[in-house]
Queue: 3 jobs
Job 1
Amino acid sequence: MSNPAPVQYPVNDLIKNRWSPRAFSDKPVPKEVLQSLFEAARWAPSSNNEQPWAYIVATKDDAENFGKSLGTLVEFNANWAKKAPVLVIAVAELAFAKNNTPNRNAQYDVGAASLQLSIEATARGLVVHQMAGFDPETAKEVYNIPQGWEPIAAMVIGYPGDASSLPEPYQSREKAPRARKPIREFVMSGEWGHTADFAK
């Protein structure tokens, strides 16, 4: 199922077609496709080229690992994510490896890497749903994540499924129109709150 964004201005189709469904097929994601997704993440920009990201990946054919990742999700997300073939936890290194000083851009950089992964997934006919609805402390415990690293998001990766297979309230959310703030509300110039001329 495709659900292109109703854009105000022209953008690349990969951006227009990237979205975060909850209906996933149980079709496995081949190893070589996963390799390409994380290769895309690998080449994201980062402050001082620190690459402060790590990803814990669990595929459904590894039942123990998949169960551990599923157990970190809040119930609302676990209810639909359990059908997907791949679960991921994105983790940020909070200090620079070079000198152990705080890296205030770490989460920003992990977000950039995760977006590149998502765009690569879109190009390959997959979808990615990123989530804040998980328990970082549980993730730290079950995966022995070391001090100085912080789980910041969970992701579901797979092929699109049938929205009608979802129970409510998920199905209604899946079929709802996509919406975003117009750019005039967040693109400013000159001073805070003053919309840039080109965005009016």
Job 2
Amino acid sequence: MQIGIPKEIKSHEYRVGATPHSVREMVAHGHRVLVQRGAGAPIGLTDEQYLAAGAELVDTPDEVFARCALIVKVKEPQPSECRLLRPDQVIFTYLHLAAEPQLARLLMDAGVTAIAYETVTSPSGRLPLLAPMSEVAGRMAVQAGATYLQKPNGGSGVLLGGVPGVGPGKVVILGGGVVGYNAARMAIGMGADVIVADNSIERLRHLDELFAGTVGTRHATAGMIEALVLRADLVIGAALVPGALTPRLVRREWLARMQPGSVLVDVSIDQGGCFETSRPTTHSDPVFIVDDIVHYCVTNMPGAVARSSTFALNNATLPFVLALADKGCQHALVDDPHLAAGLNVQGGRVTHPAVAEALRST
């Protein structure tokens, strides 16, 4: 099979769909890999390294899309890329279609088979291709929050770790999954006062054991979330419903009662966001302010640490890429129901139930 690796074109997206190590494995399996020149350059992966791994270099995305049956990317195809897709093609990437009805329509119109990293499952019911970037985003969320709490950046001037004689900043994390756990680890490491809220008692019990009581846990009722948010210096939105729109957990009217200069970091923004005031932002313009509250809602947070993110993502995606290429898409999906859970669009229609339901509601 011919596998295509185009250069990412989303704003400030520096990751790449395959590293030279991944390309070498694909070639060893008998596949031909076309890599767009400069695709890995932003993170120090040279064209020469791709050539040494057995890739063929091409100059334009048009050639990658025209010649390849399987397109492997990181972020959702942009409109110019969607116009290059065709019915006999498979695209394997992050899609987050629940919050992107226009993209869903473009993929349906193209007739392409679109498999989304974020809805591929594992035998344990986890999301193995979302997890690496969730780990990165969770850790970055605390760094971003700490940065924008600084007064020159619009924040209240609170140091998360405090200093002797001055208490630490208060961090509230909404959601105790992979993002929430990693955010809690970072926040605790910085010396913050941390509380995680989740609607699963079992998950809260697990977090309490993991952190040995150093992280507070609360059951995420609406009243409890409101009380926590009003006292927080930093709120991290880490809620997730696989494939579906994220529930809006923080209401607009609460902001006026929060401490001015507090920060909201919405890691859930790819799925619509969990704050009523959230809207997507980019690394070039990452924040906005509503009622004196700083909002950080960058949709591709891990793209800022693109080298680490690329290698972490490739570790997870490579076995699935090889399955699709070795067996062909349909056989691979039949053989592996967990990969089949990643199928979002095929034959001009949305196939994933949660994504379809979310799109009907938008």
Job 3
Amino acid sequence: MADPQRKQKALYQAIFRLLRPLVRILLRNGVSYKTFGEITKRVYVDIAAHEFDLPGRKQSDSRISTITGLTRKDVSYIRKQALEEPITEIENYNRAARVIYGWVHDPRFHDKRGRCAILPIEGSEKSFMTLVKSYSGDVPHRAVLDELDRVGAIELKSDDRVRLLERAFIPQASVIEKLGILGMDVAGLISTIDHNTYGNETSSPLFQRKIYYDNLPKEALEEIKTYLAENGQEFLEQVDKFMAQRDRDVNPDVEGEGKHAAGIGLYYFEENESDKG
């Protein structure tokens, strides 16, 4: 068993490192330490209330206060606050991503060769309107059409048909959308690390790998980014096809218990080691 003091020191060092890029984003957007502290309080209370309760007992303000170190007054106030509605731009991201997902994977919206069909905007069966209804609920199909057109994911043809240009929804204009992705993607990585660090003996580790070199010339970076853009995309599309075959939205006949979400992320990063002295 690891020495408690060494483990705590390692955790503090890890927190310091992971907060650096986050605080950089916060300062760029005018978020003060006080505001960040208030948000952190809400997260502490939420996690303590829903994930650290005692079996068969209602989680009390006093126990949450003990676990988190917050005052009972703070805990009581936070628990009474209604959760804010999702930011519209982030919801738009989720809806648009689901529509592209359906377009890519659902055979109903493919041509005879199995490729994404060029769809009439409106119609009762094989149309963009039906696609949106199937994968984005009651959202007006024109709203989704405008969103996909705005980010360059589709081509609007002169005969009132639409062609898919991108197999993934990548926000290009809105910082709000990209910040929404920050919350989803980074949370997924940290959850994986949490599972691999504290998972019980019966749970198998989740896939977590990284390749890192720290003595690369500047000229090699563009080559590496180009290589990753080409080969990384091909790998993700292979994984995408494998997972889609097991997803009930694509294959309603897939059997099994529960409803779970899973995915894999791939990203490139670089640092200037010369600046570290």
